[in-house]
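Data availability (excerpt). The following record was deposited with the supplementary files.
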Amino acid sequence: MVGTTEERLISLPRILITGAGGQLGADCALLYGAAGADVTAATRSDLDIGDRDAVLSMVDGVKPDVVINAGAWTAVDDCEADPDRAFRVNGLAVRHLNEACTKNDAHLVHLSTDYVFDGNKPEPYVEWDDTHPQSVYGHSKLAGECEMLPNFTVIRTSWVCGEHGHNMVKTILGALEKYPTLSFVDDQIGHPTFTADLATMVQRLGDERRPGTFHVTNQGAVSWFGFTQAVLEAVGEDPARVEPISTDELQPPRPAPRPANSVLDNAALRLSGIELLRDFREPLAELVAKLR
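Predicted structure:
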């Protein structure tokens, strides 16, 4: 027997998304909305996650089943100059969210980063490898992980790109219109990850209340140089327009060190029998088609 409209509305899962104005937050809001969930999409202006009282008030009011913390200060180089802000937003804020979610029996899914590793391992990083961040941003994101309770979900991802917000695909497309040749580093490698795909795994792990840490990326390890070539190929441009350089050749030099190896092995997903996200070139082609 089909329930009343009121009963069906009551049964809808309630989702609170922080950082909903960013790349992943926006796609998570769209995905959950399309699935019929009752979504509260909180942008930075709606909720300062570093403010304990604000976090407790919003979670108490929404009473969500799942909270997706896509909020963060991701300006890697700016974090070097303002570590207090980095740790407030990326670290202490997670403490507030844990407190609020525990009080309201909500499941917290927190997004973290490859920058918790130093990048010196020759093989891909698995979830159980020792962390050793080299930047303020990496340290602040690791602080957030340390605040997480073991029954909640940590998702580490890398090289995030999407239709919303700023990312490397948009940077490359913009540079193509201005410069005859481009230069990108070939000594930093990672897994590009596209938010439309990442959001589906965020939803699954959150809905299933899977505890622990998961590496979630699209597949296909590549350098920034190789990734730029793939973008050029996706828009029908000659990949020879990009030339490789080393990190040491970047001008001006970047204040924050980057991991040379950011490749995350999605071992926890694989060993759990969960199908991994597809090769990055497929969602890259889809994103380029939307942006162009």
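Summary of structural features: The first helix runs from residue 5 to 11.
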